[in-house]
């Protein structure tokens, strides 16, 4: 696995003329991040990670979150991106979600996990599958990772559709796997190995969409 370089952005033109970009989380995005998170709080709450009782406190502010994620990125353990959308070549990008590759391990494992959320206003437009495909291709082709996995609550129908569209392989149930929305929750695990998408996941996804 090659050295993880940070910061790095990934941009892709969508079939409808809009553009999607994975951009490093930065302090200057605080206003947009806070507004989108606040507006979507009820919609995202059932799928949000929480801290078990007696855990050390997490980041107390957006600036602290950026510092934590940036430190993880610079040490090669994470790729914390914000998802930005431009409605056309001449339009400004706006933040519509977040995607993080976390738990990155090199050596004989060479794998990581993807988590994401998206603004409800753009849900159903293929934003998340495209962003996931962009991230997977970067991890496989640029960094040289071998495996990416995604853990999803069985009740999260929207995310289950994402991994189905992208051809992630189901690997079974992990009982009480992650602390989500105030309790330990079961998760279904899905994975892809690099040799399963030799042509690139983004190319395969766009071919399936046409």
From TrEMBL:
Domain N-acetyltransferase: 34-195
Keywords carried by this UniProt record: Acyltransferase, Transferase
Organism, as annotated: Auraticoccus cholistanensis
The keyword ATP-binding belongs to this UniProt entry's keyword annotation: no
Similarity remark: Belongs to the acetyltransferase family. RimJ subfamily.
Pfam family name, one: Acetyltransf_3
One GO term describing the cellular component: cytoplasm
The protein's name in its UniProt record: GNAT family N-acetyltransferase
GO molecular function: protein-N-terminal-alanine acetyltransferase activity
PANTHER family noted in UniProt: [RIBOSOMAL PROTEIN US5]-ALANINE N-ACETYLTRANSFERASE, GNAT FAMILY, PUTATIVE (AFU_ORTHOLOGUE AFUA_3G00765)-RELATED-RELATED
């Amino acid at each position: 696995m090659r050295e993880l370089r940070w910061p790095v952005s990934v941009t892709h033109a969508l079939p409808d003329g809009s553009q999607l970009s994975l951009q490093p989380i930065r302090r200057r995005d605080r206003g947009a991040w806070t507004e989108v998170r606040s507006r979507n709080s009820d919609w995202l709450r059932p799928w949000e990670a929480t801290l078990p009782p007696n855990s050390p406190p997490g980041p107390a502010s957006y600036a602290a979150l950026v510092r934590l994620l940036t430190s993880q990125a610079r040490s090669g353990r994470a790729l914390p991106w914000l998802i930005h959308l431009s409605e056309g070549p001449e339009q400004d990008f706006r933040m519509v979600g977040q995607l993080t590759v976390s738990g990155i391990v090199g050596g004989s494992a060479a794998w990581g996990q993807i988590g994401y959320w998206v603004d409800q206003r753009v849900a159903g437009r293929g934003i998340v599958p495209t962003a996931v495909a962009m991230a997977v291709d970067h991890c496989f082709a640029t960094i040289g990772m071998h495996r990416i996995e995604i853990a999803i609550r069985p009740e999260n129908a929207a995310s289950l559709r994402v991994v189905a569209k992208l051809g992630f392989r189901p690997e079974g149930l992990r009982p009480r796997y992650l602390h989500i929305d105030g309790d330990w929750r079961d998760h279904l695990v899905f994975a892809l190995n690099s040799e399963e998408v030799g042509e690139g996941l983004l190319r395969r996804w766009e071919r399936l969409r046409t």
